[in-house]
Please model this.
Amino acid sequence: MDQPSDPITAAILVIGDEILSGRTKDKNIGTIADFLTAAGIDLREVRIVPDEAAMIVEAVNALRARCTYLFTTGGIGPTHDDITADCVAQAFGVGIDIDERARAMLLERHKPEDLNEARLRMARIPFGADLIPNAVSKAPGFRIGNVHVMAGVPSIMQAMLDAVAPTLKGGAAMISETIEAVGLPEGQYGGELGEIARARPAVSIGSYPALTPEGFRNRIVVRSRDAQALAEAKAVVEALVARLTT
Model:
């Protein structure tokens, strides 16, 4: 994966009524977020929209304009409510039809006589798009512009993400350190922690309460792409915690 100096950003668009209703619990956001963090790509936004064409088109156009990459999941199956491909085509202002490359992929799994109208919906690809192979069930995703359209089923999404990974440009990986603020309420160190953060723009500092097997505690996480800046900030935060706990 190439590593340019400019920051690389991404957004995730999750599509599906079943996610918003709670019937299906999303597992893809965390998987994609982990991948992006390891690749040095900043995830800037996650949006979830229903199976409504106008909302999907608006979200695709807004997110692809703001970020280097947009990853969508869901809505590319064989049923009537799988409208993502049509919406992406509309967002880009291009036509859509059965793609012979996608049909050939489906024929690796299905007999010709079994490629009915429903299954052929999964071969409908916007004009000008590249296919994303699917090692699990063969029905492909696709890439058009900076938008990567992937399945909602987690195992299939993972296979598609693995396929597109080599084509992405990554940046310097974000590194992080965690300081345990055992026995310290956030209100006791919040003001000084804010001053430390404001003085170090190359570092991101956050405080996160957590309930652990040992009981309630706060964890301060320091993040940066600059190892030296990270080490210096960590030392200052550790000194703050030590002073307040003695």
